[in-house]
Amino acid sequence: MGTAAVHPEKVSTKTAARSRWYEWKRGLPIYMMILPGFLFFIIFKYVPMAGILIAFQQYDPFEGFMGSPWVGLDHFGTLFQDPDFWMIFRNTLIISGLNLFLFFPMPIVLALLLNEVRLKWFKKGAQTLLYVPHFLSWVVIVSITALLFSTQDGGINNLISTWGYERLDVMTNPDSFRALYLLQVIWKEAGWSAIIFLAALASVDPTLYEAARVDGASRLRQIWHINLPALRSTIIILFILRLGHVMDTGFEHILLLQNALNIQVSEVFDTYVYRVGINQAEFSYTTAVGLFKALIGLGLVYLANRASHKIGEEGVY
């Protein structure tokens, strides 16, 4: 009896299918680890994007998306014609500039300093002390600041008064608002933000330091020619990502510091959306404000990413 001929193409197809199944089965634990994060972004990031539609509607919760009337770009026109628009826009850009150009370098400097510490017990202790403020809420931090700088019986103001100086009006003085905001952000987040830079420095080849020392390079020269180039791509990527949030200035923090006396310098888009959108139930209008913020962030990320490619860096995408 003759045997049926086996086509090589069918054999190769079955082999490829088995190989794919084997690879998928082997990677199943990793896929299961990815699944929660994947579902998080789908449910809480992508699905809510459908809500952008109400920026072009006069949204009525009882009528829903389909029943609410369309108004086109009217809400954007209302935003740009608002007498407070340029004040809010200026305040947002100033505070974002403080975050970008004064706070952003702090974790880099801190990581470089910690990387130079040779005593392990001191380094670990310093890192712990620097990380702890990140886990405190803004409510606690602002409350402590208010207690210390209270003009009536604040601890620091009492100390200043005993030295013969005038008490500091920190919480209600518009001139001190931005400095207070920046110092609190640095104290709370600089240590935590330094972690990623410390991780990048840990990957530097130790032989580079040995070669630099043989050539007579000082510690500062090693930082300049070895550490900073090692951090360059990380700095660029994080800077690009931070540009995407240039219009987000930290709602909770600013709202807690804000009062009637400093509102001219503290009112930003985040607090404006809360005041108008929540307190006055202007859902469509504040959605348009949020979309305006997102478009500015998207444009800045795109331009910064293109610029990073021009200088030879990979960028975000």
UniProtKB/TrEMBL annotation:
Domain annotation ABC transmembrane type-1: ranges: 89-304
The keyword Transmembrane appears for this protein: yes
UniProt KW keywords: Membrane, Transmembrane, Transmembrane helix, Transport
Domain of life: Bacteria
Localization in the cell: Cell membrane; Membrane
Membrane topology annotation: Multi-pass membrane protein
InterPro entries from the UniProt entry: MetI-like, MetI-like_sf
Transmembrane regions: 28-56, 93-117, 129-149, 190-209, 230-247, 283-304
Keyword Thylakoid part of the UniProt annotation: no
Chief place where the protein resides: membrane
Pfam entry (one): BPD_transp_1
Family: Belongs to the binding-protein-dependent transport system permease family.
Protein name: Multiple-sugar transport system permease YteP
